[in-house]
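ARCHIVE ENTRY
Sequence with per-residue tokens
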Amino acid sequence: MTLSSATHAPLKKPTEAELEILRVLWAKGPATVRDIHDVLSDTRATGYTTVLKTLQIMTEKGLVEREEAGKAHIYSPAMREADMQTQLLKDLSEKLFSGSPALLAMHALSLQPASEDELEQIRALIAAKSK
């Protein structure tokens, strides 16, 4: 499996349902439709054919890669989770905060309290970026 980096062609943004499937693949690794369906159906009612169709669309969009293993198809994410997060956040930052990471961070921090551990990580990042 070759995971793409964030420097390739423009990202085809995943829908909420596609992100759910990507989260399963990032956590579990390569999986069949049945594997993915089993994980998703633990939290909500999801049809097997819905998962299959969504994976077919995701393959066309370049969000997942598919390998044949006998009769089964094995799906893998086409991009690492961190690279997806980076691209989606850059897009959000451009659209809503004129590309300002400071405005994005300040808005995110104002939405809900951060734990002391999270605040310490933020302070460490600020210190590292200040050097």
Notes: The first strand starts at residue 64 and ends at 69. The domain at 1-96 is CATH 1.10.10.10 (Arc Repressor Mutant, subunit A). The helical segments are 16-28, 33-40, 48-61, 81-97, 101-111, 116-130. The chain has two domains: 1-96, 100-131.
